Automatic annotation (TrEMBL), chain A:
<dbReference type="InterPro" id="IPR001851">
    <property type="entry name" value="ABC_transp_permease"/>
</dbReference>
<protein>
    <submittedName>
        <fullName>Branched-chain amino acid ABC transporter permease</fullName>
    </submittedName>
</protein>
<feature type="transmembrane region" description="Helical">
    <location>
        <begin position="223"/>
        <end position="247"/>
    </location>
</feature>
<feature type="transmembrane region" description="Helical">
    <location>
        <begin position="134"/>
        <end position="157"/>
    </location>
</feature>
<feature type="transmembrane region" description="Helical">
    <location>
        <begin position="188"/>
        <end position="211"/>
    </location>
</feature>
<dbReference type="Pfam" id="PF02653">
    <property type="entry name" value="BPD_transp_2"/>
</dbReference>
<keyword id="KW-1133">Transmembrane helix</keyword>
<feature type="transmembrane region" description="Helical">
    <location>
        <begin position="54"/>
        <end position="75"/>
    </location>
</feature>
<feature type="transmembrane region" description="Helical">
    <location>
        <begin position="259"/>
        <end position="277"/>
    </location>
</feature>
From TrEMBL, chain B:
<dbReference type="GO" id="GO:0006865">
    <property type="term" value="P:amino acid transport"/>
</dbReference>
<keyword id="KW-0732">Signal</keyword>
<dbReference type="InterPro" id="IPR006311">
    <property type="entry name" value="TAT_signal"/>
</dbReference>
<dbReference type="Pfam" id="PF13458">
    <property type="entry name" value="Peripla_BP_6"/>
</dbReference>
<comment type="similarity">
    <text>Belongs to the leucine-binding protein family.</text>
</comment>
<feature type="signal peptide">
    <location>
        <begin position="1"/>
        <end position="31"/>
    </location>
</feature>
<keyword id="KW-0029">Amino-acid transport</keyword>
<protein>
    <submittedName>
        <fullName>Branched-chain amino acid ABC transporter substrate-binding protein</fullName>
    </submittedName>
</protein>
<keyword id="KW-0813">Transport</keyword>
Amino acid sequence: MEQVIANGFYLGAQYALIALGLTLIFALMNVLNFAHGQMYVLGGFISYTVYGQLGLPFVLALLASGVTLAVIGALMEKFLFRTVIKRSLREESTMLLAAATAFFFDAVILLIFGEKQRGVPKIVKGVFNDGGIIMPYDRMLVGVLALVFIAAFVLYMQYSRVGRAMRALAQDRVAAQLMGVKVDRYTMIGFAMGAMLAGIVGGLLVTITGVNSGIGGPISIKAFMMVMIGGAGVVGGAIAGGFILGMMESVGLTVLREYGDVTYLVIFAALMVFLSIRPNGLMGKPWG
Amino acid sequence: MINRRSTLKSMVLGAVSALAMAAAGMPSAEAQNKELKIGFVGVTSGPAAAWGTSNVRSMQTRAAWINETGGVKIGDATYNVNIVTFDDQKDPKRAIAGMEKMAQEGIHYVVGPNVDDGAAAVRPVAEANGIIYFPYAFPKALYQKPASNAVLGMIANYQSGPAIYKYLKENKGVKTIAFVAANESDPLSQRDGGVEAAKALGLKIVAQNDTYQNDTRDFTPVLTPIVALKPDLLVLSGVAPANAPLLIRAARELGFEGLISTETAQDAKVLEEGAGEYANGFISVGGASTPEIASDAMKEFVARYTKMFGEYNDESNTKVYALEYIIDTLKANPAAIDNVDEFKKTMDTFSAPNPYLKGDAKLSYVGTTSFGQKRQLAVPMVVNEYKDGAFQTLFVGTVD
């Protein structure tokens, strides 16, 4: 059972990091970024190229993934989402745009990086084994790094000037604007940060799970599930949603294994019941 | 002295000369040739894109090779081969649309689909429109009477599985076996076939209900309870090439010391990148490119494929064959070019040299034992063992 709990914590840490960027963009712009999974994939392929193919240090690869995705996110916000939000009163317009960018990224990634599963050399070799828990050292490192990134993100949002401005925007866009917050600027920074988080987690996890061009959609679906559990637009909710999903997956795959692949059936059924009782998730607010 | 002006002048003169030659009625060999359209309906996007992409690229490589060398002579006419492709995204509804598109284009020979439900879905369209298709799917009903238009393009798991398990039982002392499969029709049916074969051989099955979502990225939770059972052999039933290295790595990191095998084709580079030395000893079924058996033609095919697409895919060792069979069967009976009944008649007696294997191996249609009629390509059943970035031939089997 110790192994199952350890697996759940590890999965939870990586899931929480995946969900953070998605919930940040939703909080700031009320945009469901369907391309979040594709951004994760792109981050993974950039790390694969820099670290796996060019042989440069992994830290540099992670930096390249984060910076590239941040730039892409900023450009997407400025030239696509900002334009659509200003021209259209219907919220579906941004959803359709997000879906279109997801398909676009899928096609471009397939074209550039091909159809094969890709992986990189392990960043740390060896496996921790105390007789009860078995955990490869690279997973432990990635789990710790995920926790560090989550903590850094929370602290940044809480105490930095940019973070405070973004939180003000998320709470009340008009009031923030009246208080002198430059809405366009901080929205762009927020979108760039959300995309950067997707790139970093993609770059981080390529060392464990590799990457292939077709996994963007499934990653987005899992991220949406975590956000729904925790509450859309709430950072703490995304973290809680990630850990809950990770633990449910780990426990379900062990306890329910004799019944075939029913773990996700149970998770989805539980989610439906949960959302019918708490439609805003664990920490979400009715107004967003 | 060569300068920019003289270079430009030469280019302009060259272009004018070429146009003048074309205008003067000097047709190239290709321009005289007729067009032979061969279709492909399969998955070239999403998580399973590797299956269909290796199909399409094999066909395109071979077609370009044929066209470059003057086309293929069938009866009195010479044809250039044109591959018409359709991505069904692993969706049976789209597979039907793809097969309908092939029918509208007047195509009679189609490679694909890549999975069971797609192959079953296109059957009515293929039969109604006189199309012979070559699925990479294993349901026997597709190939048994009254069906007659589908031809299995590879070795089925119920053919390779028993041979692999028997070999491992006799040579590696395997006594216990565990199965894990993705929760999709192909892997589940392959798992069920594997379980039957293992039972028939007297192996003790310690796990057979464990499944996973095909888009799983971390298999540690899936494999933790199976590894605890310590089977001698872990079978990854119908595993997609993208998932194989992740499963192998997770099992080894959890301390699994037994053998790992699958009945599907895999790619050595993907295994090397995704699992590294953990993949050593992994057993899979391949085609014809291991050095021990590959002919010069196979080596040239690999070189051309690599030049055309940047990187070879080892799954193409099997997928190179379908187009070869179609063309050689049409050469054997030119009346089949637009008449699939003629094609079916020829299948019963067809035999031609296998260009991709050393020695005097033959291309022929098989499947009598499994399907009661010849509705399968005689692709060599090469059971490979992965070792340090390459496949080594473990043994070669045949299907009748």
